[in-house]
């Protein structure tokens, strides 16, 4: 006789992301109505973007626009859609004083806004992966802007990652997931397209102290410094707990999400082509660093804490090393010319 003791869990028993934020479960001192409203507008944007991403191949949304962005990168059609979606939603309620996007030359200020938060974002991270159906994402961070110091300007965005009041990312993968932190705990919410809502699915995410995979574009090997090469040889070499497995998607959000869940280390170092690294401090590195530190991990340039780096320009780049605390510490040891202590 077939016995079935398995009872399917009811996803809808979990709170939606809006409920979770509203109930103040983040216990963020900054969680005023304004702050909550901006987070909700980002959530709405990610629902709109996920709808476009899921139908991209059917709606003539694959491919590039023919233009390049301020970074000199080819602009994809979905880059434009994601960028405009976020800007429109953030402007709508007057709670966001301005935003800066990886896709725009300059910050956009909303002079009629009454709120005092600034939002930085990479609207569609990994956009070279769009056309080949590989996971892409959105990365975002919220800063306060000091209105007492006068109306915000582009310089108001030049804040350290340690000044972020919230950060997170959305991964458009096998499912769409938002990972969010206000500094105390990291929580993941999975999108249920039948309900049109994100439900809490990963409460209080913690990254393992050490993992067994590393993530780096090995094709850049010839451009690395001797220190990066030495670390790379070590992590691939035989030893206790080694060699590590290699995983690289080429979308930061996807590589970071796997690393957050499973442990290990993601590295995009400085090299001879990108002497200051490739990834952007404000739109990519700092928000990811906030998430990883809040989950018990570590985020570094290899030589200093990402969250301590003060940007001098909006589109500043930085080497990025994020992951399990001990794996990032091992990398930092190599950058000092030392061997890890194990
Ligand atoms: P973009 O937002 O312009 O698509 O940037 C993609 C980034 C990041 O997502 C990824 O980790 C990295 O570029 C991959 O770069 P390589 O192709 O040089 O490895």
Q: Can you tell me the residue ranges where pLDDT is under 50 for at least 5 consecutive residues?
A: none
**Second rung of CATH, namely the architecture of the largest domain:** 2-Layer Sandwich
Corresponding CATH superfamily of the largest domain? Fructose-1,6-Bisphosphatase, subunit A, domain 1
What general form does the structure show?
globular
Give the overall average pLDDT.
Answer: 92
Please state how the strands of the largest beta sheet are arranged side by side. 4-3-5-6-7-8-9-10
Assembly form of the protein = single chain
Structural class given helices, strands, pairing?
alpha+beta
Distinct ligand kinds: 2,5-anhydro-1,6-di-O-phosphono-D-glucitol
Q: Can you offer a commentary on this structure?
A:
The chain is an alpha+beta fold. The protein has seven helices and 15 strands. The protein has an eight-stranded mixed sheet, with helices on both faces. The protein is globular, with a radius of gyration of 20 Å. 2,5-anhydro-1,6-di-O-phosphono-D-glucitol binds near residues 252 and 268.
Quick overview:
By secondary structure, the chain is an alpha+beta fold. 27% of the residues lie in helices and 22% in strands. It has 2 domains: 11-202, 2-Layer Sandwich (Fructose-1,6-Bisphosphatase, Chain A, domain 1); 213-335, D-Maltodextrin-Binding Protein, domain 2 (3-Layer(aba) Sandwich).
């Amino acid at each position: 006789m077939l016995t079935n003791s398995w009872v399917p869990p009811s996803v809808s028993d979990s709170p939606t992301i809006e409920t979770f934020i509203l109930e103040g479960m983040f216990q963020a001192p900054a969680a005023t109505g304004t702050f909550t409203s901006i987070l909700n507008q980002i959530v709405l944007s990610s629902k709109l973007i996920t709808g476009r991403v899921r139908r991209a191949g059917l709606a003539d949304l694959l491919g590039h626009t023919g233009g390049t962005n301020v970074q000199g990168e080819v602009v994809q059609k979905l880059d434009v859609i994601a960028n405009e979606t976020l800007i429109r939603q953030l402007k709508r309620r007057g709670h966001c004083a301005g935003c800066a996007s990886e896709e725009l030359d300059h910050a956009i200020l909303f002079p009629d806004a009454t709120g005092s938060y600034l939002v930085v974002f990479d609207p569609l991270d990994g956009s070279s992966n769009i056309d080949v159906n590989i996971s892409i994402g959105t990365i975002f961070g919220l800063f306060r802007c000091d209105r007492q110091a006068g109306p915000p300007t582009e310089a108001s965005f030049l804040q350290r990652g340690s000044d972020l009041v919230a950060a997170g990312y959305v991964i458009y993968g096998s499912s769409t997931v938002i990972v969010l932190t206000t500094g105390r705990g990291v929580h993941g919410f999975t999108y249920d397209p039948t309900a049109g809502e994100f439900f809490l699915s990963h409460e209080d995410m913690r990254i393992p102290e050490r993992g067994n995979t590393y993530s780096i574009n090995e094709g850049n090997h010839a451009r690395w410094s001797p220190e990066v090469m030495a670390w790379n040889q070590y992590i691939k070499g035989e030893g206790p707990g080694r060699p590590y497995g290699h995983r690289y998607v080429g979308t930061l959000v996807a590589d970071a999400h796997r690393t957050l869940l499973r442990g290990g280390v993601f590295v995009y170092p400085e090299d001879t082509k990108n002497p200051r690294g490739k990834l952007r401090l404000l739109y990519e590195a700092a928000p990811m660093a906030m998430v990883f530190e809040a989950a018990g991990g570590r985020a570094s340039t290899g030589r200093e804490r990402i969250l301590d780096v003060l940007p001098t320009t909006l589109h500043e780049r930085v080497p990025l090393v994020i992951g399990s605390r001990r794996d990032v510490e091992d990398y930092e040891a190599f950058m000092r010319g030392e061997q890890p202590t194990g």
